[in-house]
Design brief:
By secondary structure, the chain is an alpha+beta fold. It folds into 3 domains: 1-96, no CATH class; 108-151 and 298-336, no CATH class; 162-290. The protein is 50% helix and 14% strand. α2 packs across α3 (130-140), α4 runs antiparallel to α8 (226-243) and α9 (248-265) packs antiparallel against α10. The protein is elongated and about 90 Å long.
Length: 337
């Protein structure tokens, strides 16, 4: 029974001449170009006069069953009869970048391995040097912003928006929950306190997200702690205000009315937030003009922090830009075709 299979090389414009194993137990595939001619590197005209072969180049290709694979090619050279001195030009194939020690499919695969990883990890996994990995990054990923892509920047930044406000008032409600649960743990019997175990996750959800069991759990919790119920209702009321289609003037009226209700409930944990509202009400109300938030920016900042921790610090701004581009767009840009 035959114990071999055939796998397509998937490199265009070449013919396989020989497949062998090297002393290092890697696969070596010798190929030759099937293309006729090239373009002159000086005048750009089509060349058809074959001049000979360049020195063979050995390129790292995609592995097969975790075995390294190399492709060896003797590039063809063509001579130009139009230019002075009749210079020669080496034929370039679409699957190889000039001066790269790898094929393009291999480099795209390496870039996918680099997503959410480090240069050192990729180099160790592939048994290559870190310089080769960074060289691939430099060939495929820009190290600075291409400002020509941007015709106009509408909004440069937002300091106070719904994201920050929401985080602040939700923190106040969560503070009520934590303090009330500490009191309930001392006040209730072990069995009674066990009946409200896991209420934190239900408390943090909005009503439309509840399952039946979570709704029942929250009602038991509110029976033991009316103050927690008030904090929950106040939190959801302010969320509802931000969901409504107010203009800034209407939003300020609604927020002021909400602040009045908070004061009447006498929940001290919201005091710091009420002071924030008094100080920043005008900028907060401007959210209702375009309803833009900086949640993307906050998430992006967190991604930068994670990247820096993963790489034990990146002090080169251009290298940081490359790594962020790879982590965010790597799977999309270097997907297997």
């Amino acid at each position: 029974m035959d114990n071999s299979i055939q796998i397509p090389l998937d490199l265009p414009d070449v013919r396989v001449l020989e497949v062998s194993k090297t002393e290092e137990r890697s696969w070596l595939i010798r190929v030759e170009s099937t293309l006729k001619g090239t373009s002159c590197r000086k005048c750009g005209k089509k060349l058809t006069h074959f001049h000979g072969f360049d020195q063979p180049i050995r390129l790292r290709h995609l592995p097969v069953f975790e075995q390294p694979v190399y492709v060896e090619l003797k590039p063809k050279r063509y001579q130009c009869s139009h230019c002075k001195g009749k210079p020669t030009t080496t034929q370039r194939l679409s699957w190889h970048e000039l001066r790269s020690p790898n094929t393009k499919p291999y480099e795209k695969w390496l870039l996918r391995l680099g997503v959410n990883s480090t240069v050192v990890d990729v180099a160790n996994k592939l048994s290559i040097s870190e310089e080769i990995v960074t060289g691939v990054f430099d060939r495929w990923i820009r190290n600075k912003v291409n400002w020509e892509r941007f015709q106009r920047i509408e909004i440069l930044g937002i300091d106070i928006d719904r994201f920050h406000v929401s985080r602040a008032y939700r923190h106040c409600a969560d503070l009520v929950r934590r303090q009330e649960l500490k009191l309930l743990k001392k006040k209730l019997s072990k069995k009674e306190y066990g009946s409200i175990k896991g209420a934190m996750w239900a408390f943090r959800k909005s009503p439309e997200q509840f399952t039946d069991s979570e709704w029942e759990l929250l009602q038991r919790l509110f029976t033991y702690s009316p103050k927690m119920k008030e904090a929950y209702i106040l939190r959801e009321e302010l969320t509802e205000i931000f969901e409504r289609l107010y203009d800034p003037k209407g939003a300020k009226c609604a927020i002021r009315a909400w602040c009045k209700r908070v004061r009447s409930c006498q929940i001290s944990q919201f005091e710091s937030f009420l002071k924030t509202i008094e100080t920043w009400l005008e900028p907060i109300a401007n959210y209702f003009l375009e309803r833009l938030t900086s949640s993307f920016v906050e998430g992006f900042n967190n991604r930068v922090k994670v990247l820096k921790r993963r790489c034990y610090g990146i002090f080169d701004v251009e290298r940081l830009f490359q790594r962020l581009t790879l982590d965010i767009h790597g799977y999309e840009r270097f997907a297997f075709n």
